[in-house]
Amino acid sequence: MSPGEGTAGDEVPEVDRTGDEVRAVDTAGDEVPVLLTSPQRTSTSLLMSDAAARRGMRVRVLDGPPEPLAPGRSGHHWYGGPLLADRIALPLGLGLLEPADAWLADLPEEFTARRVVLTTLDEARASLRQPAFVKPPGDKSFPPAVYTDGGRLAEGVPGRLPPHTAVLVSDVVSFASEFRLFALDGRIVTGSRYAVYGRLDPGPLTAGARRFGERLLAEAGGSLPSAVAVDIGLITDMDTGGERWAVVEANMPWFAHSYASEPGRVLDVVLRAAGPLHHVTERDRRFLRPGRSEVRAVVPAGGIPEESGKDPARCRGSATGSDVPCERRPGIG
User: Fold this and answer.
1) Which range among 11-15, 110-114, 253-257 shows the weakest confidence by mean pLDDT?
2) DSSP structural state of residue 10
């Protein structure tokens, strides 16, 4: 059995082995849900494994190609990276939920406190004329960073990425503190601080962060999957000392660190966001991976306009419906 698969005193389900497929079966013969994790063990994957085992789930570490499910069988859930998830989703019948690429770009500036554009890597390289923060919307295909112009972006992003790769381009701001909220059905179920001035520093969720998150979900929760992780932060104006809450990004819960959040409640969100495809509701089907939104917005000529009084709509993506802070440091996922 894999680490975290059972605890002392727990009743361990019997295991039915059919070829390479391992399936847990309880004494009544019903299938026991399986939490499958990637071989790359992290503190969060260990916490999710322990929480799953405590509620009677079977926990497995994916150490080889998964066997397709037998007809009529289901019950797998996933916690791990998107590249491996893409390989196992079809044979295991997984329904993976993720925010639309354009979600952050489509938010009103009331919530972003900066201008954000969804565009392509090729267009950003050609159009950027001033410093901007650039990152991939959902995965970690290249390190998010501030680039002084399109030439620096061309030098800093791997050439293997296709020119049509979606990227988010935003104004450069400074977050004094950042928080991760795990939400289910438009309600915050747990959350925590994860960074202070760009340095990893997990801590409790503050009342101010919760209030802003609740207002965000009340007004924009319909544009997110029913199970999602949302990062928010407190922006500090270095000139005036003023502070303002803003959205950093939206994440796939099944690829998000839990930091100081309550593991059992994080697991509730993960199980909804990465579970059997036939359990996905009609409301959530538009958020299924790989049905990602098309890139239809481009960076305005000369980059993001410097004028702060312009209508923010001209600087937002136009796709319907994202892993974006402004100033996300590599290594803080």
Assistant:
1) 11-15
2) S
Determine whether 269 is exposed, middle or buried from the number of CB atoms within 10 Å of its CB (0-12, 13-18, 19+).
buried
41 or 314: which carries more pLDDT confidence? 41
CA distance 189 to 28: 32
**What whole-number distance in Å separates Cα of residue 103 and Cα of residue 251?**
11
**Which of the four pLDDT bands, split at 50, 70 and 90, describes residue 176?**
very high
Quote the CA–CA distance of 34 and 199 in Å, as a whole number.
35
| Nearest residue to 273 (alpha-carbon basis) of 249, 251, 252 | 252
- Provide the 3-class DSSP secondary structure of residue 6: coil
N residues, the chain: 333
Taking residues 93-97, report their average pLDDT.
Answer: 95
Q: How far is the CA of 271 from the CAs of 72, 226, 243, in angstroms? A: 20, 11, 35
Strand intervals (E) in 271-313: 274-276
Angstrom distances, CA of residue 243 to CA of 108, 122, 191, 215, 238: 18, 34, 21, 17, 9
**What gap in Å lies between CA 327 and CA 132, rounded to an integer?**
9
Which residues touch 153 (CB under 8 Å, ≥6 apart)?
A: 121, 124, 125, 128, 134, 147
DSSP for 168-231, written as a single string: EEE----EEEEEEEEEETTEEEEEEEEEETTEEEEEEPPHHHHHHHHHHHHHHGGGS-SEEEEE
Q: Is 318 exposed, middle or buried (0-12, 13-18, 19+ CB in 10 A)?
A: middle
| Beta strand 145-147 pairing with 166-170 | unpaired
Residue 8: burial class (beta carbons within 10 Å; 0-12, 13-18, 19+): exposed
Per-residue pLDDT of 179-223, as tens digits, reads 999 999 999 999 999 999 999 999 999 999 999 999 999 999 999
